[in-house]
Amino acid sequence: MTYDAFRHFADSWGLLAMALLFLTLVAWPLRKGAAQRNEDAANMIFKDDEHG
């Protein structure tokens, strides 16, 4: 394959793959089943708090 073929692939399918990966990673924490894990992660810094 030549440089032009790789360039064409990256401009079309590579861009589509990166966009789908980005959207998946953005949507992953927002899914319905992740609410408890997100809450646990948010409160993890207070786990060893002596005053609470």
Key phrases:
52 residues; mainly alpha; 2 helices; 65% helix
Return the string of H and E elements.
HH
Q: Roughly what is the average pLDDT, rounded to an integer?
A: 90
DSSP, total strands = 0
N-to-C CA distance: 63 Å
Low-confidence stretches: none
Structural class: mainly alpha
Helix content: 55-70%
Number of helices: 2
Give a summary of the structure in a few sentences.
The protein has 52 residues and is an all-alpha fold.
Structure explained in plain terms:
The protein is mostly helical and 52 residues long. 65% of the residues lie in helices and 0% in strands. The relative contact order is 0.07.
Write the layout of secondary structure elements.
Elements: H1 3-27, H2 35-43
